[in-house]
Amino acid sequence: MKFKLNLVTLALLANAGLVSTAMAAGGYGIQNANTDKVKFEKWDCKRCAVETGYSGSVGVGVGYNSSDDIRSANAFAAEDEFAGKLDADLKYAGKSGYQASIEADNIGMENSRADINVGKSGQYNLNLNYRQIATYKTDKAMSPYQGVGSDNLTLADDWVHGGSTQDMANLNSSLNPIELSLKRKRAGLGLEYQADSLWSTYINYQREDKTGLKQASGSFSNQSMMLAEPVDYTTDTLEAGIRLKGDNWFTALNYNGSTFKNEFSELSYDNAFSPTFGAQTTGYMSLDPDNEAHTISLMGQYVAGKTIMNGRVHYGQMTQDQDFTTSGYGYQMPSESLDGKVETRGATLKVVSRINRQLRLNASYDYNDRDNQTNVEEWTQISIDSTTGQAAYNTPYDITTNKAKLGADYRLARGHKLEGGYDYRKDERSYQDRETTEESTVWAKYRLSAFDKWDMWVKGSYGQRDGSEYQASEWTSNESNDLLRKYNLADRNRTQVEARITHSPIDVLTIDFGARYALDDYNDTQIGLTESRDISYDVSASYLINDDMTLTAFYNRQNIESDQAGSTNFSSPNWFGVVEDQVDVIGAGWSYNNLMEKKLRVGVDYTYSNSDSNTQVTQGVTGDYGDYYAKVHNVNVYALYRATDKMDVRIDYKMENYKDNDAGNDIAPDGIWNVLSFGSNSHDYNAHLIMLSMSYRL
Predict the structure, then answer these.
(1) CB 3.0-4.6 Å disulfide test: which of 13, 618, 693, 694 passes with 61?
(2) How far apart are CA 666 and CA 661, in angstroms?
(3) Overall average pLDDT of the 514-522 stretch
(4) What UniProt keywords apply to this chain's record, in alphabetical order (predicted)?
(5) SS3 content of the chain, % helix, strand, coil (to 5)
């Protein structure tokens, strides 16, 4: 779809920073304007009166939620049967420039946010913000453990241990449902201050609390139990910086730091099986340790005529020195804590220059280095049943990445534009199967917009990755097959083609179509990922039936097919696998405005998505692992009625139909002899939500 920009629109975009860079590169920056003959004193904008006072709206809503599966709360943001919410969009502007605003969405629901801003235009602004996000997996996980939510999981006094899950006589009677979900609550405070036209500063503080339960597992020898791991994280983040700017330059010094704390350092759990091979009756597992991260960066931009240069340098440090948990571990530790330390540093430089009206050149360089300075210690190597007596060492992985890009775009004629470029990347790794990999990509893009009501482009690229000799060692891998290649390090040829067409055959209809094809050929890999194909396309349409009625629709499909080769005899390939993934997304929407004397608006939105995956393995005969799928239908029917000049009443009906068949979620607690699982946790439900809300305009 084509849009025409008038002078007012262009000025607004420039003020927002969306076109200022491009215009400055062409010599059209405001600093280049000739204002000698402009009589500013005679300017009089009769329509530029600034509205003062209060404006905006506030609303409340109440809803009823009908669902037998808590996963529906991901779509409805409502966990309980009854739900209520508060919405607000309020603004105040004073004659002296003082201003304030309150924005709130779904306060009281599981996913909600709020922002409060107070300040004076061009001088300072104080911001208070709040955000709540919840994700739900299931509320039907079954576990015999007591103390769920704490760091000590125990079994009942009358628990009957067994050599297998079938021998646990009171397993079924001891099962209780638990909810696997995570909730994040984030609150922040920020201040921005504009001292004068030269410099400004800001500081933002944010605290996030994350609580809930997630799935984990504990093992004794060859027997394991699914466990509910407690989550009680606190993350504090601080950002601060100072900015300096002139007529054609800008610079900023920034700091970003975070501190992570976990309320629980370890999780203990009773052994549900009869101890065998010297196994213990209680197990322990370490949980996420406390850590810190700090980064300082310096960035800047300079405009020299038709050339813009900007860059950034940064230095960061990550540390982790929490004491090791040694419960249940009877061997000498080489140190009390990891005393982990990782330093990061990098630099970025970008240059854009408009040579003439037709040609523009751009170049960039990125350098990033990750230096792991953690001390290397000797550790007693433990298997699940006994001490081997061998020594193992923690591996300090390092990586250095250099990326360079060169590009150009050339205006062939009106409505004809050609772009092209070359991208280069080099990675240097320590303690990896391959110390160095290099990747080069060339690409070209042609855009055609010369025809009325048509806009189209096509882009193609070809890249190659190779590197140093591939050689596994005791530092990098314990694999015995020298033919095995890791896909992120292996030689690869990548071919990719993309295209998009936008057409408006009539003023009220817009059609958009896009397609993408990508082929990754791991031509030197005998064992591992050998080929991957990614094909996707999408189409969307928007039709204005009349002045009051609109219809929209879209469809998207993506197919990913991966080929893999393996060996069971640590020699040449003797089995082959194919993984086929397909995702379909369909959507449509319809709305009708100005019904009932222009007081009523009605509409309906519908989406359907289906993700399907299948794996086939051939080793003499072909075996099908079976399909995995997840299907979901979402419907939202709504009506908005303007009851008075200031009050609107809205009713929404939402429905979600969801079904999946993940085999990993369909295991009974005693379905596998040496695995005590959470039971069947696949989803198959219909959920409904009715929400009545009212809003009042000031």
Answers:
(1) 693
(2) 8
(3) 98
(4) Cell outer membrane, Membrane, Signal
(5) 5, 65, 30
Confidence band, pLDDT 50/70/90 cuts, at residue 11: very low
* Token pair listed for 201: 């500063």
Tokens for 305, please give them.
Answer: 């005529």
List, in sequence order, the alpha helices (H) in 106-159.
none
Which two tokens mark 176?
């209780």
540-574 tens-digit pLDDT? 999 999 999 999 999 999 999 999 999 988 889 99
Q: What is the pLDDT of residue 8?
A: 36
Q: What pLDDT score does 384 carry? A: 55
pLDDT at 12: 36
- In the beta sheet, which residues pair with residue 352? 308, 362
Contacts of 597 (CB under 8 A, 6+ apart): none
Model confidence at 28, pLDDT cuts 50, 70, 90, reads very low
pLDDT in tens, 87-120: 999 999 998 889 999 999 999 999 999 999 999 9
Q: 494 vs 13, 78, 253, 466, 562, CA distance in Å?
A: 37, 45, 39, 12, 14
Q: Based on C-alpha coordinates, what's the Rg of the chain?
A: 31
**Residue pair 235/293 in contact by the 8 Å Cβ criterion:** no
Q: What is the secondary structure of 278-345 as a DSSP string?
A: T--SEEEEE-PPPEEEEEEEEEEEEEETTEEEEEEEEEEEEEE-PBPP-TT--S--S-SB--EEEEEE
Strand partners of residue 222: none
SS (H, E, C) 1-12: CCCCCCHHHHHH
Q: Terminal CA-to-CA distance of the chain, rounded, Å?
A: 36
Rounded Cα distance, 75 and 109, in Å: 11
Report DSSP letters for 565-590, one per residue: EE-SSSSS--EEEEEEEEEEEEEEEE
Q: Residue 10: pLDDT above 50?
A: no
Q: Report the pLDDT value the prediction gives residue 196, as an integer from 0 to 100.
A: 76
For 344, phi and psi rounded to 5 degrees?
A: -125, 145
Q: What is the pTM of this model?
A: 0.87
Cβ 131 vs Cβ 183: under 8 Å:
no
Supply the pLDDT for residue 471: 81
In 357-470, which residue ranges form alpha helices assigned H by DSSP?
A: none
423 and 401 Cβ atoms separated by less than 8 Å = no
Distance of alpha carbon 628 from alpha carbon 10, whole angstroms: 50
What sign results for the dihedral spanned by CA atoms 640, 641, 642, 648? negative
Please work out, in degrees rounded to the nearest 5, the angle formed at the alpha carbon of residue 191 by the alpha carbons of 188 and 197.
Answer: 155
For 263: left if phi > 0, alpha if psi spans -120 to 50, otherwise beta; the answer is: alpha
pLDDT at 324 over 70: yes
Q: Is the dihedral of CA 15, 19, 20, 21 positive or negative?
A: positive
**Interatomic CA distance for residues 252 and 233, integer angstroms:** 32
